[in-house]
């Protein structure tokens, strides 16, 4: 696994066809997709949602169902 630092948050590469890397600091979830260098930050994300994303069979589908549009 490779890591990068975005605004003080460590990003870890993940095995997903749509998501390149994720980071989590206990409150903010950072997601970078394969299609862009932009890192999307979602504030107020509980650990259970982050854990669900990491454990999901399809991280992209989980992101769309449980994170996108729900957290700023």
**Proportion of beta-strand residues:** 35-45%
Give the termini separation.
Answer: 27 Å
Number of helical stretches of at least 4 residues: 2
Low-confidence stretches: none
**Neighbour order of strands in the largest sheet:** 1-2-3-4-5
Cα shape: globular
Q: Write the element-wise H/E pattern from the N-terminal end onward.
A: EEEEEHH
Spatial extent as radius of gyration = 11 Å
* Secondary-structure-derived class: alpha+beta
Total count of strands: 5
Instruction: List the domain count as a whole number.
Output: 1
Percent of residues in helices comes to 10-25%
Average predicted confidence as pLDDT: 90
**Biggest sheet details:** 5 strands, antiparallel
Write the layout of secondary structure elements.
Blueprint: E1 3-6, E2 9-13, E3 19-24, E4 28-33, E5 39-43, H1 47-55, H2 59-66
Antiparallel strand pairs: 1-2, 2-3, 3-4, 4-5
What does this structure look like?
The protein has 72 residues and is an alpha+beta fold. The protein has one domain. 24% of the residues lie in helices and 36% in strands. It is built from 2 helices and 5 strands; from the N terminus they run βββββαα. A 5-stranded antiparallel β-sheet has the order 1-2-3-4-5, with no helix packed on it. Strand 4 and strand 5 form a beta hairpin.
């Amino acid at each position: 696994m490779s890591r990068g630092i975005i605004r003080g948050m460590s990003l870890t590469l993940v095995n997903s066809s749509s998501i390149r890397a994720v980071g989590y600091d206990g409150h903010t979830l950072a997601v970078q997709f394969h299609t862009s260098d932009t890192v999307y930050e979602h504030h107020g994300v509980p650990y259970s949602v982050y854990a669900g994303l990491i454990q999901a069979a399809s991280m992209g589908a989980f992101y769309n169902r449980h994170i996108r549009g729900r957290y700023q």
